[in-house]
Structure formats: structure tokens, C-alpha cells
Amino acid sequence: MTSDLQTAIGFDAVHAVNDRYTPPPAGELDALADLLDDGRLSGGAPILAAYEHALAAWFGVRRAVAVNSGSSALHASLHTLGVRYGSEVLIPATAPLPTAMPILTCGATPVIVDTLPDRLALDPDDIEAKLTPRTRAAITLPMWGYPADDRAARQLLDEAGVPVVEDACQAHGTRVAGRYAGTLGRVGCLSTHDRKPLSTGEGGFVLTDDEDLAERIDYYTHLGHLRGNLHGVNAKLAAPLAAIGLRRLARLTEQLDARRANARLVLDALPPNGRLRELPYGPADTPNFYNLVLLVRGEPAPVAAALATAGLPPDSIRYGYRPLYHQPLFQRYARRCPNAERLATASVQLPVHPGMSELELQWVTDRLADLATGD
Ligand SMILES: *Cc1c(COP(=O)(O)O)cnc(C)c1O
Predict the structure, then answer these.
(1) CA-nearest residue, atom 2 of ligand 1
(2) d(CA 325, CA 333)
């Protein structure tokens, strides 16, 4: 859908919306060459421990366990916390498919809960209404890297003895009350898929301060370390991906700063009191700007369509994103979640990644200004 104007100004829709930019950090090829020379390429290679230590240090937690995807991180966390057939797992209606599928992988039942109005945080009242003796875990989700301040819900869940699993798969560097997303619950799950702020192609990791839980997740994802007394899966991260992750982790802060600056540029140009405003969050919270997320006042569909025509399709069009219970797989778990329904349908997501050129950012800014002041 590239218009003549887009061509004329050098706007490349495919580049702008495809967030794959991570300039290979200096030394990346050398690190890979060393590894190839060494020959130990499996998930049992020594570089894995170095990568896990670096991740734990960056996020300020006791333990990180590297795995082969964010999905594996979620599955291994839920399984290790005892989620099985007959268990119920609380999940916000704003969750995308990859957050929810690991619940089904465990054979458990998703119980879909609402969020607070215009927020990603779980609604404590709805949690209270939906907790049962079968509730084994609750997933919280800083979607699009926007802070989900779940403190009220977490207190309730703590009292009920229900562990919180944070799906921070897109939220590297997001902060809630000064603390990193992924370190707020019992365990945090992050992805290093190509589109995430830290990319190793495919990959993920688990963060926790609970040494015992980390150890059990490590055993589970490493075939029980082949001791023969513990069941496990093989979800190890291959050594070359750990080598890539280790190098790129050193550049993560710089990448996040660039996102923040780009988001600021676009937001500052947004007309005040127009029909677009940023998804709100608390004064002590910071998004990582995985996407810039705006809420549409009034009818969102025409705005989404206009953005798609401008080469900037929001998630509803690009990925068919919608409240979880509108996905065929999850329709049977539908519960009334008016706040999440509104947030999911009235939000649009814009790219602000560090690989965008000035022209591309200008294009985004101009399109938004037009749309925000439109009728
Ligand atoms: C990417 C993502 C996942 C899954 O991660 P993979 O590494 O692709 O398996 C899960 N949840 C969210 C919110 C994600 O963005």
C-alpha cells in the first residue's frame, strides 16, 4: 500500500512498521566465529551461564534461565508452579494469543479477567470474583511495553497464595514504580524473538528471585538434567543465540533510549485535546515504547483504517489483535470484560523503533496530526 507520496518522501512502510532493527554490535561476528571454532553449540555450552549472569545483572534479579522462546518461558513457569489439567489460570482479556496458549499447553483452563479502565493492570474486583480453589497462577501483562501497575491485584493474589507470572515478553526495560517489568511477580517471562527490543532471532528467558523455582525451571527446561528422576522438556537456548544475546544486551539501554526519544518526538507533535491521546500510566512508571500506544476518542475503526492506508497498520489490522475471548480458540472462555474490550478496540500502535529514519518519524507525526484533528 505504498502511495506516490510515500515514495516521494522516502517513507518505507515495510521498514517503518517492521521492528527488526538491531545493528549488529561491534564484535558480534567475531564472537560467533570464536564459538564456531570452539565447536560447542548446544544449550549446554559455557556461554549460556555467562549470558544468564548478564541477564540477571541487567534486570537486578538473583536468577535468569535462558530458554528457546518466550512461549517456552511461560510454559515452563506455569508448569513448574504446578499448573496442570484442571488448574485455572487468570489472564487479562487484553492478552494476545502467545500469552494464552501456554495455559492450554499445560492442559489448564484460562479464566479471563478484566483490566482497570484505560489501564493494562488487572482489575482487583474482577480477580476477587473469579478466584477459585483451582486458581493456580495469574498472568499479568505489560502489553506493548506499557506499564501494568498490578500492585492492588498482586496483594490480593498474594493473600490467596496465587503466584503471579509476568508476561514481560515485549517489556524489556519497562518500569513500574521504578522496578523493571519481569521482576515484579514470582517469575517474569521475556522473549528475544526478532521483533523484541533484545533480539536473538528466537529465544527467551525467565527471571526470578526465587532460587528454588529457578532451579526447578532449569531442570524442567533441560530434560531434568537427564537424571532420570524428574520429567522435563528440551527448551534450551542454543549457544550461538546466547552469544548474540550477550553482545546485544550491552546495547539494550541505548536502544531503549532511542525508542523513548522517538516516542517523545511523536507525542510532542500530537495536537492537545484531539481525538488521540497516549495510553495513560502512572507518574513513576515508564514504558519501553515497544510500540507507541494511543487511545482513540470516538469511533476507532476509521482511525485504524486511515493508519493502515498510510502504511502504519495498527495491531487490530496487522495481527487481528482483539480481546482474547474473541479469538476462536478462546471463545468458550468468554467473560464480560468491558474495560479490556474498550482498551483493545480503541487503541492503536505506532512504530518508534531505533531503526526509523527522520523521514519515517516525520511521516508518522504528520499522519497522526491529521488524524487527531479530524472530525
Ligand atoms: C512475543 C511474545 C510472546 C511469545 O514469545 P516467543 O519468543 O515468540 O515465543 C508471548 N507473549 C507476548 C506478550 C509476546 O509479545
Answers:
(1) 169
(2) 6
- Cell numbers that stand for 28 in this block: 558480534
Q: Is 193 in the pocket of ligand 1 (CB under 6 A)?
A: yes
Residue 78: how many CB atoms within 10 A of its CB? Answer: 25
Residue 188 Cβ < 6 Å to ligand 1: no
Grid coordinates standing for 41? 553449540
| C-alpha to C-alpha distance for 120 and 141, rounded to whole angstroms | 7
Strand partners, 293: 349
Here the cell at position 353 is 523503533
- Distance in Å, CA 96 to ligand 1 centroid: 9
Contact 140, 174 (CB under 8 A): no
| pLDDT computed for residue 316 by the predictor | 93
Q: Which residues of the chain have pLDDT under 50?
A: 1
Please indicate whether residue 204, judged by its CB atom, sits closer than 6 Å to ligand 1: yes
Q: pTM for the whole thing?
A: 0.96
